[in-house]
Amino acid sequence: MTFPGAKYIDLLDQAQRRTMAARPEELFEIVRGNEALSTFIIDEIQKVPELLSVIHALIEENKERQFILTGSSARNRTLNTISPAPQVFKLFAGKILF
């Protein structure tokens, strides 16, 4: 499955993970700086769970935005219970969960 035109953020990348962990509000700047985009993919979201509240705020700000959150850890199961909004999709092991 591909998402042409989506902004991809890879939290396996140590520099990106450190930046987002130290300053989760950086995601506001990334999303607002890409106004033409409506889809954002964040891979390995379990590495920086603090981003979930930022994602929630960004969706409240603009309901057209979509966030696809992926991960590979057993900790992902907790994301099912704290999904900030119905517009947030979670993609795990090739499955989209709503």
Series of secondary-structure elements, N-terminal to C-terminal: EHHEHEHEE
Tell me the number of strands: 5
Mean pLDDT: 81
Which descriptor suits the 3D outline?
globular
Q: Characterize the main sheet.
A: 5 strands, mixed
Number of helices: 4
Distance between the termini: 16 Å
What structural class do you assign from the helix and strand content?
Answer: alpha/beta
Oligomer: single chain
Could you tell me the strand content as a percent range?
A: 15-25%
Using only CA atoms, what is the Rg?
Answer: 12 Å
Q: Unreliable runs, pLDDT <50, ≥5 residues?
A: 80-88, 90-98
Question: What descriptors fit this protein?
Answer:
alpha/beta; 5-stranded mixed sheet; 98 residues
How would you describe the overall organization of this protein?
- The protein is built from four helices and five strands, in the order βααβαβαββ.
- It has 98 residues and is of the alpha/beta class.
- The radius of gyration is 12 Å and the shape is globular.
Provide a brief overview of the structure.
This protein has 98 residues and is an alpha/beta fold.
List the helices and strands and how they pair.
Elements (H helix, E strand, L loop, with lengths): L6 E4 L3 H9 L3 H7 L6 E5 L7 H11 L4 E5 L8 H4 L5 E5 L2 E3 L1
Parallel strand pairs: 1-2, 2-3, 3-4
Antiparallel strand pairs: 4-5
